[in-house]
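Hey, I'm writing a tutorial for new members on how sequence and structure tokens pair up, and I'd like a real worked example in the thread rather than a made-up one. If someone can provide the structure for the chain below, I'll link this post from the tutorial.
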Amino acid sequence: MIFQKNYHTHTFRCKHAKGDIEDYCLVAINNNLNTLGFSDHTPFPDNRWSWVRMEINQLDEYCNKIEQAKERFKGLEILKGLECEFVPEFLSFYKEELLEKYKIEYLVGAIHWFPHNGSWIDLSQADSSKKHLHSYTDYFIKSLESKLFSFFAHPDAFGCFYLEWDQEAIACSKIMLQAAKNYDIPLEINAFGLRKPIITTPQGKRAMYPLSPFWKLAKEFDIKVIINSDAHSPNDLILKTEEAINIAEQYNLTIVDINKEILL
């Protein structure tokens, strides 16, 4: 399969990416992409986690820039999205502000923080313990239950902190995969994880994610997958996407687009 659709793209507004809307559009056209979805990290009304996402007062500009690009780059399908953690108290914000007022075309579910014992834990702060893996899994399920998200980004990002592929990892992965199947929500094989530094685990060196055994297990559940670059720079737009596609092909997974139309 040729990589032609990317739905996971960040701009400078998230404070850990480079480039703006037009920069990515030009690279997309030069690399024969036909669809480019922007999904910068969602700002929240209380500006939580603002050091790695846009401020709430930048949302208008973000949306306007995307609309302008739609007019300029007529040959490229451009979509207006946001990548979100599910924060239950902001349910009306997602629905009434983002989806209705700002006409956001799709929301991407993701876990960069997850609740544990009444607090939010950053993935980098979590340890390789069963209790944190269970909290991650529980939060993943609650996020899917919200039915807000068109797909879920890097579901196997627990590999950043839970280093072993053991019976606990298998059991939690099965729970997550079954939920994705039940709610018919595609899961993302994320190429950004393949661009990150290799880590050392008790079972050897590997990427933080994607986790090959997770995706091998996914075939048992007949889930749908989406391949995305998770670009944080225009130069990242297609980088390592071929390897992400190879994971899907290796395990005979069904690749779809954001509308769940089968691509492979």
